[in-house]
Fold these 2 entries.
Entry 1:
Amino acid sequence: MRPTAPPDYPDDPIAEPVHKGRGALSNESSRYDSERRIRTTDGWEAEAASAAEDDELPPLRTTLTRDATRTILARNSSPDIPFDRSINPYRGCEHGCIYCFARPTHAYLGLSPGLDFETKILFKPEAAKLLAAELASPKYRPDVIAMGTNTDPYQPVERELKVTRQILRVLSDFNNPVGIVTKNHMVTRDIDILRSARWRRPAFRWAS
Ligand code: SF4
């Protein structure tokens, strides 16, 4: 069978298939990629369209990757940010808010700020150990550590991994103040630590 029309590729992108239950509609290449990936047509779009009607897209599953970072406290000296140190136990966020300002950070990993951001999650299994070592250093000066400033520390997988919970235990043990930004009700799981007598004024913000 002959193609129905002369091919328009490679400059004529066609719509990405939509994955139900995800926030982003595409997996646009990151700004650092040397090549840009687009879906295009070879002229057989009529056949492809009728085949697509018969085919359900497979569910887009979330994958987890260990982040082997050796530094857990991120520092900043920005005058317009009310904290100078933060911890992000995860990179990427399965909550997938389309407006999320952290999406472009996935480009640093060679991943897309689109669907990759919400389906390819990195976690830091050594976070609590690294933090304990940093807080125990004689050079460390205590101050508020912000959590969830880049991506939400209560990813769905936190239920099993407990990376954030282990970090909170270390912060409590060292009596180091913490501020948490999350939109996940799972933060209430850790209320026992947040209520700890070690912290006179625990602070967290829960945005829905
Ligand atoms: S919950 Fe927060 S970090 Fe996660 S996608 Fe939404 S805005 Fe971004």
Entry 2:
Amino acid sequence: MNVNKILPILTIFCIVPLLSGAALASKEDQAEQTTLNPAQLKLGKRSFIRCQACHTLGAAEAHLTGPNLHGLFSSTAGEKEGFAYSEVLVKSQIKWTEDNMKEWLRSPFTFIPGNKMAFVGIQNDRELEALIAYLKEKTK
Ligand code: HEC
């Protein structure tokens, strides 16, 4: 076969996968589109790995060792249906504002002594802020 005939065919075989790859990539980007800047989203998502063994974020997802966190911000501590909270958490009457969330996640044991969330806390402020921004977005 002569090269002039093969070349256009080869070109098509190379370009089609490239184009469909690009289309897929942009779909993924859309799925991740949020008001967060990408670096913060990435850091928040990575930080949530520390929580995901015990918590889900989406609407109507299951409680695990910890309660499902959907609709968390501006809710009151310990009010999710169907989860057996500790008494101290329910009695705390804490409103989950950004500031309270920061104190809780920095040191759960000192913020609400006697609660049963087995987590040591996050000391790094940048990580803490990214995680809270991520949670705000994903629990909407
Ligand atoms: C080992 C399991 C575990 C891990 C890890 C964990 N949690 Fe929890 N979490 C719990 C439990 C259990 C409770 C309920 C505590 C209680 O009732 O005293 C809870 C409660 C909470 C609450 C209060 C919910 C409400 O409805 O008032 C928030 C917010 C929370 N966790 C966020 C997080 C975040 C964010 C992380 C990761 C940084 C995390 N937790 C890590 C088990 C866990």
